[in-house]
Amino acid sequence: MRGLFITLEGGEGAGKTTQAHRMKEYFELQGREVILTREPGGTPEAEKIRALLVQRDGGNWTPTAECFLFFAARVMHVETLIKPAVAEGKIVISDRFTDSTVAYQGYGHGFDLNVIEQVRQIALGDFEPDLTFVLDLPVKEGIKRSMAQKAVASGAENTEDRFEKLDTSFHERLRHGFLEIAKFEPKRVKVIDATQGVDGVFKKISKELSMLLHA
Ligand code: TYD
């Protein structure tokens, strides 16, 4: 059976992790072997690079250096985990992939999209996901949800107050970026309205998965 590489994308609070687990159950019920992974990270080497990128004491990387670090992690992820698993007929589901670099570093932080594309080409050639889901939420809703999740995790209160103080323009650019990516590649990238609840979102996702499996 043909292996598959599927990615989940979107801003914070859109519910990627929950949907990744639902997808895993869906495929396992069909007897398929599934690997859930994430970026940056997914392999021991790439997780080390993740620590450099996401921890506060990881250093102040320039945008170009940061772009190379994301792709260095991604090359390890693709070459040592994703490609071998797909070749064995497994289904690999990644929480984020290249579209996050385009949306966050490119559209969000203003790093040159052409440079990202050049680095992507050198790092990955024509390798790309079979299918990508962008879980799309209005910015305020996404921030509200992710702050509520963080508040639950830390026991903090007053998420509304903190939310009001946030500058939302970065998140607007991010959302716009993901929607642009989907516009350029409508066959690979499916935008799913993430306001409709876990079951509603998964219903849309499973429809696409079933079309992919029977393509
Ligand atoms: P994570 O805690 O996994 O966030 P989330 O739950 O939102 O996925 O941290 C990953 C962070 O790294 C997230 O803020 C998005 C960012 N990121 C980039 O900026 N560029 C990238 O290429 C990737 C893969 C992630």
The shape is globular
Mean pLDDT: 92
According to CATH, the fold-level topology is Rossmann fold
The secondary structure category is alpha/beta
- CATH C-level class is Alpha Beta
What's the arrangement of secondary structure elements?
Elements: E1 4-9, H1 16-29, E2 34-38, H2 44-54, H3 63-87, E3 91-95, H4 98-108, H5 113-124, E4 131-136, H6 139-154, H7 159-165, H8 169-184, E5 189-193, H9 197-213
Parallel strand pairs: 1-3, 1-4, 2-3, 4-5
Helix pairs in contact: 1-9, 2-3, 3-5, 4-5, 4-8, 6-7
The structure holds thymidine-5'-diphosphate (TYD).
Report on the architecture of this protein.
The chain is an alpha/beta fold. It has one domain: P-loop containing nucleotide triphosphate hydrolases (Rossmann fold). The protein has nine helices and five strands. The chain has helices at 16-29, 44-54, 63-87, 98-108, 113-124, 139-154, 159-165, 169-184, 197-213, and strands at 4-9, 34-38, 91-95, 131-136, 189-193. It has a five-stranded parallel β-sheet with strand order 2-3-1-4-5, sandwiched between helices. It is globular and about 45 Å long. The two termini are 13 Å apart. The model has no long low-confidence stretch (mean pLDDT 92). The chain binds thymidine-5'-diphosphate. Thymidine-5'-diphosphate binds next to helix 4.
